[in-house]
Every structure is written in structure tokens, then in C-alpha cells.
Design a protein that fits this description.
The protein is of the alpha+beta class. It is 20% helix and 31% strand. The chain is built from four helices and 13 strands.
Length: 241
């Protein structure tokens, strides 16, 4: 069944139509979504994010960019990297000339994406009875046409820079001091973003796993807690105090 044959789901049938201010010049590799509260926004799907990342990385030259901040985070059991980078326009790439225009700054390694709201298909005479399907809602577009817009279930991320040896080397080319003496910040994103911990030693950041960083953070907090309580910290197996 094509999208044109999909009827509007009943509990979404009274959603408002998109208003005229919808941007007609949006990125072609993004999708128009409607939230469950009736708001409209553009986000790429996972497939669109993959395409955009592939195109970006085919053109990006690390020597032309400076990483203001690099984060290491986990996806499942794997460690990944992302960074906020700024374009270096200096002729010798000595990080002395940065633009303040937003188009010359961006995140790499991670892209926010839209994930569709899923529901069990209970309709009659469909090709997917009893299956989980993405929700869509019929709406009139600013140009007068009618389209089926996917309903946003939640926002997610597409991560594409696994912390391999080659990717670490790629990121290292963008890190360091600027001519103004500002250095790259390094951050461990622990507990699924529940705790962020800075790293002052770049060499440690590149070699530490997220698990090792979490163990060290917990040990530091344990030492501080024991000090506040006036008691001696007893080393745990595998830890140095």
C-alpha cells in the first residue's frame, strides 16, 4: 500500500494544518514531521542523515577546521566521537582567523534525527494487518497540495564516528591551541548523558574507553566522599588510590 492510500488515523484527524510560514527553502535531505501536539518541524530521517554524513565527510579536510570541543560517548557497547568544529580561514591554517558566521561552525559525528510514532495496524483491508507501522497524517500544504506527513514519535541521533584508530587520528588533526591561546575541550559523556566529565590530558582522552573513564570518575567521587567523612579510602581491586 502506498502512502497515498493510507487514511488518516482517527485520533490524529483533528490536527491543525501546516501554516503558511513553513519554509519552502529547507534542506532537501530533511523531512517534514508533525508532533503529537500538532506542531510542524523539519528533521532528517536516519537514511537522510546517513546520506548527509557521507557527503560531508567526503569533502571535509581536517586541516581547515579547529575542534572547539570533542566529546566521547557510547552507543551500546561501542565508543563514538563527535565534535563542534569551526572553519579556520587563515592561509597557513595556524588557527588565527575564524568566522563568526553560523554556517562556518557545525557539529560532526552525530546528527539529530526524527523517529516515527509507531502503532499497530488495526485497519481493514491493508497489507500490514496486526503489524507495527509508522503513523502519518493527511494535511494540506502551503501550495494547496495534500500530503501525508509522518508523525514524530521522538527525536534520536545518528552517530557515525566510531572511536577507531583512524578516526582518532582524523580528530587529532583538528585539535589543539588557537593563536589566542584557546585550547580544545575534551569531554566524556557518561551515563547516557547523565554526567559529563572534562579531561585535561588529551593523550588520556584518546586512549581511555568510556568504561575506564566512568570507573575513574566513580573512584574520584569515592575518595572525595571518604575524605569528607574523615575515613581512609580502601582501594578496590584494579584501582589505584
Amino acid at each position: 500500500m502506498s502512502n497515498n492510500d493510507v487514511p488518516t488515523m482517527e485520533y490524529l484527524s483533528n490536527l491543525p494544518e501546516p501554516v503558511q510560514q513553513l519554509n519552502k527553502g529547507v534542506d532537501k535531505d530533511t523531512t517534514l514531521w508533525v508532533t503529537q501536539s500538532g506542531e510542524f518541524l523539519y528533521l532528517p530521517t536516519e537514511e537522510q542523515a546517513k546520506k548527509k554524513a557521507k557527503t560531508l565527510m567526503s569533502k571535509l579536510k581536517p586541516e581547515e577546521w579547529w575542534a572547539q570541543k570533542v566529546s566521547k560517548f557510547s552507543v551500546g557497547q561501542e565508543d563514538y566521537l563527535c565534535a563542534y568544529i569551526k572553519r579556520d580561514f587563515s592561509k597557513k591554517h595556524d588557527r588565527s582567523d575564524f568566522s563568526n558566521v553560523s554556517m562556518d561552525e557545525m557539529w560532526i559525528g552525530r546528527t539529530e534525527i526524527g523517529l516515527p510514532l509507531m502503532a499497530t495496524d488495526t485497519r481493514q483491508r491493508t497489507e500490514t494487518p496486526g503489524e507495527r507501522i509508522a503513523q502519518v497524517v493527511q494535511t494540506q500544504m502551503p501550495d494547496g497540495s495534500v500530503a501525508f506527513v509522518p508523525v514524530l514519535g521522538k527525536k534520536g541521533y545518528y552517530s557515525y564516528h566510531k572511536a577507531t584508530k583512524d578516526m582518532v587520528a582524523f580528530y587529532q588533526k583538528m585539535c589543539g591551541l588557537t593563536m589566542e591561546g584557546i585550547t580544545t575541550q575534551f569531554v566524556y559523556v557518561l551515563l547516557n548523558g547523565g554526567r559529563n566529565v572534562g579531561e585535561d590530558i588529551p593523550e588520556e582522552f584518546w586512549t581511555n574507553t568510556l568504561k575506564a573513564a566512568l570507573d575513574m570518575d566513580r573512584n574520584v567521587k569515592r575518595i572525595a566522599r571518604d575524605k569528607d567523612l574523615g575515613r581512609e579510602t580502601k582501594p578496590k581491586p584494579g584501582h589505584l588510590v
